[in-house]
Amino acid sequence: MKKQESIGFIQTAILLFAFLSGSSIIVIPAPVITYASNSAWLSLLLSMSFGLVLLSIILYLLRLYPDKSFIGICRVAIGRWPTVVVACLMLTMAFHMATGIIIDVVAFMNSMMLPETPGYVFMCLMFIMSALLLRTGIESMARMFTILTVVVFFCWLTVIILLIPSFHMEFLQPVFPDGIKPTLLGGYLTSGFPYGEIVLFAVILPFTKDIKSKPLKRSLLAVILLNGAMLTITTLSTIMILGPIATEKKYSLFVLAQTIEIGDIIERIEAIIGMSMIAGSLMKASITLFAIQTIITELFGLQDHRLLSNPLCLLVQIMSLSMPTTMKAWEDLVLVIHPLWVGIAYILPFLLITIVAFFRQPARAAPA
Questions:
Q1: H/E element holding 266?
Q2: Range of the domain at 353
Q3: Which run of H or E residues covers position 163?
């Protein structure tokens, strides 16, 4: 597969940025502030550090086996049948992610922008777009997402700059109103979403042309730092503008954009943030579905991964329509179970594979 499709290190970094940011910039601040209050920004810094560690381990593992896919590395390190178990664990979480991204888009559109439109309309449109993107392949996705990522970033930056006159620094105090435990709880939440999900991106990284290059490592680490800075700034802006009512507002960045009004010229720019969230969610959903498609293709040795595009999108759409009984139950699942699920399905198996690969590496390298 790597011979058929490959992307440069800059495109890989852009895909990682889209994967990490996606809908997290608009979804994450509110629950983190609910958990950690004024120390929410410290929770994000803690989880960002965890993401940097995970990415470093992923790059180390891929440097040991530069010519193999992620599933290929698993087979070499732990054997065929343990690889099947690891892949099935990862697929459970990956399907949940793909489903959850679309459910979040529907919840956002129905609560903030188009409350009278049935949710299945948004789902169908999102999955049609994702199916078309999957069929074009990773190279075309990377080129298209470069443009969308730049647009999303500049929309975010514009809103933050326009919000600066409305900041109230006094709302940042006290930093630890209830001690350090809420900060750790907020770090637990964001360690699962978005930073623990980096493990799934390891499936995409082998498509990079030169996996051992230092520019790739530097660019990927810079992406995590940039994403952490964006989430931290958005969270701080939410606290400094909304103050005590920050925990009561979902989709913080969208709500903040609603407060912007400069004369009669600049106002009602929240629609820009809404479109940015849809674009970001589409990118993350497509990358997640491509990772699922890649895992299944390599696991079963399929010749053409594009054959899975339409059935895969249809399956995830059916899951999106049937999974959440109520939005309250869905929020509890995402905030409480999701980080634990990421740890069990992604992080623990990945660390096990890395440890086994580390001890087997000298034996593998000895004949050379």
A1: strand 266-267
A2: 9-359
A3: helix 138-163
Residue 3 lies in a domain: no
HSE (side-chain half, CA atoms, 13 Å) at 59: 21
Structure tokens at 228: 């952490």
**Residue 193's CATH number:** 1.20.1740.10
Q: Has residue 248 been placed in a domain?
A: yes
pLDDT in tens, 78-89: 989 999 999 999
Among the listed residues 326, 260, 233, 253, the one whose alpha carbon sits nearest the alpha carbon of residue 30: 253
Give the containing element (helix H, strand E) for 267.
Answer: strand 266-267
Please state the domain count of the chain.
1
pLDDT tens, position by position, 341-364 = 999 999 999 999 999 988 877 445
- Whole-angstrom distance, CA of residue 1 vs CA of residue 68: 10
Q: Residue 4 domain-assigned? A: no
Residue 85 in any domain: the answer is yes
Cα separation, 291 vs 239, in Å, equals 35
Q: pTM of whole model > 0.70?
A: yes
In three-state form (DSSP H/G/I as H, E/B as E, the rest C), the secondary structure along 40-89 is HHHHHHHHHHHHHHHHHHHHHHHHHCCCCCHHHHHHHHHCHHHHHHHHHH
Q: Which residues of 158-189 are buried (b: 16+ CB within 10 A; e: fewer)?
A: bbbebbeeeeeeebeeeeeeeeeebbbebbbb
Give the other-Cβ count within 10 Å of 55's Cβ.
22
Give the Cα separation of 368 and 358 in Å (integer).
17
Cβ 238 vs Cβ 30: under 8 Å: yes
